[in-house]
Amino acid sequence: MTGPGRIVTGVLAPHPPHLVYAANPPQNEPRSSRAGAWKGLLEGYEKLRARLTAREFDVVVVHTPHWKTTVGHHFLGIPRCKGLSVDPIFPNLFRFQFDLPVDVELGEAICAEAAAGGLVTKMMRNPDFRLDYGTITSNYLSLGHFETPIVAISSNRVYFDYSNEAGDREMLALGAATRRAIEKLGKRALLLATCSLSHRHFTQEPADPEDPAFEHPYNANQTRWDDHILSLMRNGETRRIVDEMPDFIEGCVSETRDGALTWMIGAMGFPTIPAIVHGYGTVIGTGNAIVEWDLS
Ligand SMILES: [Fe+2]
Predict the structure, then answer these.
(1) What distance in angstroms lies between residue 186's CA and the mean position of ligand 1's atoms?
(2) C-alpha separations of 110 from 10, 104, 105, 182 in Å
(3) Which is the most buried residue in 118, 210, 225, 286, by most CB within 10 A?
(4) 134 alpha carbon to ligand 1 midpoint, in Å?
């Protein structure tokens, strides 16, 4: 036990590999020559990191759209994760050597809590498992290091196989299970819901991916939805966000359809405090916001 277990902070932490590319960390093979197109998002992550550095976390719990599991919710179950992660869409931007510790104890506890709550779950024990770029990118951009052990949770296909409403119900149950396990084990947790908001995107890349002239919202409908969701976040209306989630998903092809945001709102217990929006910007036309719920 490390003290009273609680969710210290929840963050909406989008994972465009472009942002890691632009930051030029030694682990990433491709080299960026300038951070031209995504300044607002990079500065937003800087502001977030400055705030998170002042807090103590025992664990980072990430729900990611890029570890997709057809049956059930899977949890990382190996003590250390190491290897090369390549973005399948942008291998020119992201070929990242990852090496990070895993909090298997908490992963197992959330897995068991969720199963007890009626969800299908599984621990992932493959020692050669290749961690997805959503988990790596959001963790790196939020903290700037990989020293804090992580729990990674896969994205189940329930929204796609059944409906947005069924998906949200399941993610709220998974969120509640996550919270119970964190409290039982006495962990101070940082939650990362890693996804874009609006997610309609360009299908062609310019010769220079960092050309600022290329980067803009896909269309005004996408921006309008994003502005609306961000205003609900700033006003503490998380219950209404979940109420409107099915329409939001359909209205702008939102990546929240993979469940991360609903999961985190459920885990935080529908917070009514105003969220802090550290940055908003587009990457290949998709809308991305860095948003913090400071529950500390
Ligand atoms: Fe994504």
Answers:
(1) 31
(2) 17, 10, 9, 8
(3) 286
(4) 6
Has residue 182 been placed in a domain? yes
Instruction: Using alpha carbons only, give the angle 147, 152, 153 rounded to the nearest 5 degrees.
Output: 165
- Domain containing 280 — which CATH number? 3.40.830.10
Q: What is the pTM of this model?
A: 0.97
How far, in Å, is the centroid of ligand 1 from the Cα of 2? 33
Q: How many domains does the chain have?
A: 1
Cα of 195 to ligand 1 centre, how many Å? 6
**Distance from the CA of 136 to the center of ligand 1, in angstroms?**
12
Instruction: Render each residue's pLDDT in the chain as its tens digit; 296 residues.
Output: 446 899 999 999 999 999 999 999 999 999 998 767 899 999 999 999 999 999 999 999 999 999 999 999 999 999 999 999 999 999 999 999 999 999 999 999 999 999 999 999 999 999 999 999 999 999 999 999 999 999 999 999 999 999 999 999 999 999 999 999 999 999 999 999 999 999 999 998 888 888 888 888 999 999 999 999 999 999 999 999 999 999 999 999 999 999 999 999 999 999 999 999 999 999 999 999 999 999 98
The pair phi, psi for residue 198, each rounded to 5°, is -65, 145
What's the 3 CA to ligand 1 centre distance in angstroms? 34
**Which is it for the CA torsion 51, 56, 59, 61, positive or negative?**
negative
